[in-house]
Design goal:
This protein is of the alpha/beta class. The protein is built from 16 helices and 7 strands.
């Protein structure tokens, strides 16, 4: 047997031992074996040239590392204890402004498996109030108004929504990468003071049979009990792609999608439980039609226009001394096709140029003040040569076509 095959065999043996320890509750032993398995697979990847096998091995390695990270939290005592969010438990705001369930709330009478799942959710899902406001997002006034109507008003003024006037329960933000979809979601959650759950495929998908469905069920149960709540799922297409689109899709993935659809349909919700699912994606055309129907409102987040690009340059150069030859309007005109994230990278590249001109050895470790020259027009022009827009004109055409068919 070659040394390459020995590494793989050793990794699989270590992984099997880790699973056995894990099931027996032997946390430290399981952690060690998961790490051994991941390290062996990493060594195996250095020698293996089979692309197909490399993908499989990388996927396994990520699973082992993720489980090891969770066990490490339990070992160090950082795991959050499962707590009740029932009527007897009250929300409070800590000194740093973060919303949380009162520590005085009594634990629910739930089984150990449910407690463990809640611990996983509370370890991997952000429930703190976002520190983002509408002013942090340049332009997009029409989109902001739509989000206020869809998300903020139903929470702040629930009495308005009576009879046939019902608030949206599912909103999809779609558009090119870097246009501010995540920022929009956080700003909306901040304004309406809802409990904000930010999830992704990494926090909701488990390699253990049946656990992914239970994680999704637990997430929605917690969100209902802490309502009004906003569940934000970034890159939602990774969870809700067309069923059966790939031959590699297993029964577990189909069950996960079915569970998520059931939760989003509101079958277990009541009118008093204000719960909104907000999804964001760069590939809306990959979503399963059944999921697409559950996102009742679909909002296109386009690339910033001229005025918005001007504001973005101002936001990302705030507090930095600029030369008199820097014209925000000119920079905005030169960045047609750039997203907000692209422009932020241009600014970061430009404002680092004066720093690079310093003699680093004479600056580090000394208390004397550092005199940096202002960032000038040439710095920005050079940065534009380095940083090109991520989205192509063909991408934008595809987004506009999809928006005309499905969005607003």
């Amino acid at each position: 047997m070659s040394s390459n095959n020995k590494l793989f065999t050793y990794a699989m043996d270590a992984a099997q031992q880790a699973v056995n320890f894990d099931r027996q509750g032997m946390v430290e032993e399981a952690f060690e074996k998961y790490m051994r398995a991941a390290e062996s697979l990493l060594e195996f990847l250095k020698f293996n040239k089979n692309k197909k096998l490399q993908k499989i091995v990388e996927s396994r390695m990520e699973e082992y590392l993720a489980r090891a990270a969770y066990l490490k939290k339990k070992i160090t005592g950082k795991t959050v204890k499962a707590i009740s969010s029932s009527a007897s438990g009250t929300k409070k705001v800590s000194q740093d402004g973060k919303s949380k369930v009162s520590e005085n709330a009594q634990e629910e009478d739930v089984d150990e498996d449910t407690k463990r799942l809640r611990e996983m959710i509370q370890d991997t899902v952000i429930t703190d109030k976002p520190n983002v406001t509408w002013s942090d997002v340049a332009g997009l006034d029409r989109v902001k108004q739509t989000l206020r109507e869809s998300i903020v008003l139903p929470v702040l003024q629930p009495q308005i929504f009576k009879g046939a006037r019902k608030p949206w329960t599912g909103v999809l933000l779609f558009g090119p990468p870097g246009t501010g979809k995540t920022l929009m979601a956080k700003a909306a959650a901040n304004e309406c003071t809802a409990t904000f759950y930010s999830a992704d495929s990494a926090s909701l998908v488990s390699k253990w049979l049946g656990e992914s469905e239970k994680l999704i069920k637990t997430l929605f149960e917690l969100a209902r009990k802490t309502s009004p709540s906003l569940i934000f799922i970034d890159e939602v297409d990774s969870l809700t792609s067309v069923r059966g689109a790939t031959s590699s899709e297993g029964g577990g993935e189909r069950r996960l999608k079915t569970q998520l659809m059931q939760e989003m349909s509101g079958m277990k919700s009541t009118e008093k439980e204000r719960l909104l699912v907000l999804g964001a994606t760069n590939r809306p055309w990959d979503l399963d039609p059944a999921f697409l129907r559950r996102f009742e409102k679909k909002i296109y987040i386009p690339l910033p226009d001229l005025v918005s690009r001007t504001e973005i340059f101002k936001i990302h150069t705030k507090g930095v001394e600029l030369g008199s030859d820097v014209d925000y309007g000119e920079l905005a005109r030169l960045t047609v096709g750039y997203s907000g994230a692209d422009i932020s990278l241009v600014c970061r590249e430009a404002i680092m140029v004066p720093l690079r001109e310093l003699d680093v050895g004479s600056v580090i470790g000394k208390d004397s003040p550092v005199n940096l020259r202002p960032v000038n027009r040439k710095d920005f022009l050079d940065a534009l040569e380095i940083q090109k827009p991520v989205s192509t004109p063909e991408d934008i055409k595809q987004f506009k076509k999809w928006s005309n068919e499905f969005g607003v």
